[in-house]
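dumping this here so i dont lose it
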């Protein structure tokens, strides 16, 4: 039998192996530098700024009922808007992937429109559309339904800016889901409703949770598209980002940074909770698929 010689290649002493990816170290250093400069440094400044005036500024902020009302409106409105966007986004993603819609490319481009247009333009458009004399506001006003200048208008604006996050999170997963799975379930006797609830939706659940988290996070900090349609009444339709601007206009910088700090902490906790839920859902799917 022919023996195969064991050939080993040894580097000369004192020489390090070359990087597996050319330019990896330079890219890593540049990434860490820009991340620290653009993300970490501003966040650190925001965290330290409220305490520079002493603990009194933070104590006053914690006793501000107007601030807590604005935070409640921002978080509740963002949650409701993201929750409503979930079924709408899933259905729209399904239509784009599975159905052969006329003008599909135009619809696909319109979905990304909230990403492109300025938020102020969105706010003015929605306020004009849902205003008392608007195309949709006037018929709704005859029915006793008010959208503009109410808390409902905030939810409508956040639904508009948050819907693309749901669609773009679910769409690639739906494209990778073979239609044969649905056909096999139908051949095995599953009804259309069972195919959707037991085959399609479980596969889309992690992506749906991700899209919900992105839409929710965008809604918490949304400003331009909300202030034109909200009415901005304290304790009723005033959002937290607007209250920060109000404090800055009053030259109350400690109060503004205190509100921003509390909003940052609350937003971080909510996003951590959504990320934890997404991991639990993904692990549950893996455990359920294991034999």
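and the seq i came up w/
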């Amino acid at each position: 039998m022919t023996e195969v010689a064991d050939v080993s290649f040894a580097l000369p002493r004192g020489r390090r192996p070359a990087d597996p990816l050319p330019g990896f170290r330079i890219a890593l250093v540049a990434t860490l530098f820009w991340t620290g400069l653009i993300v970490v440094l501003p966040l650190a400044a925001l965290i330290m700024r409220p305490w520079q005036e002493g603990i009194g500024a933070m104590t006053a902020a914690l006793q501000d009922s107007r601030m807590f009302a604005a935070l409640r409106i921002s978080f509740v409105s963002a949650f409701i808007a993201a929750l409503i966007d979930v079924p709408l986004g899933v259905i729209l993603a399904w239509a784009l992937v599975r159905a052969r819609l006329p003008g599909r490319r135009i619809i696909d481009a319109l979905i990304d429109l909230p990403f492109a247009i300025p938020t102020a333009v969105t706010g003015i458009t929605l306020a004009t559309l849902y205003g008392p004399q608007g195309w949709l506001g006037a018929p709704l006003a005859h029915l006793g339904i008010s959208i503009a200048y109410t808390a409902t208008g905030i939810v409508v604006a956040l639904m508009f800016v948050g819907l693309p996050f749901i669609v773009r999170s679910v769409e690639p997963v739906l494209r990778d889901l073979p239609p044969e799975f649905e056909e096999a379930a139908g051949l095995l006797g599953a009804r259309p409703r069972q195919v959707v609830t037991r085959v399609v939706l479980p596969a889309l659940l992690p992506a749906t949770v991700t899209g919900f988290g992105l839409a929710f996070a965008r809604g918490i900090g949304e400003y331009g598209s909300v202030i034109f349609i909200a009415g901005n009444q304290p304790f009723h339709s005033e959002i937290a980002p607007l209250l920060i601007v109000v404090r800055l206009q009053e030259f109350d910088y400690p109060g503004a940074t205190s509100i921003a700090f509390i909003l940052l902490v609350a937003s971080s906790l909510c996003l951590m909770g959504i990320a934890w839920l997404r991991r639990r859902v993904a692990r549950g799917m893996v455990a359920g698929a294991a034999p």
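Residues 23-52 form one domain.
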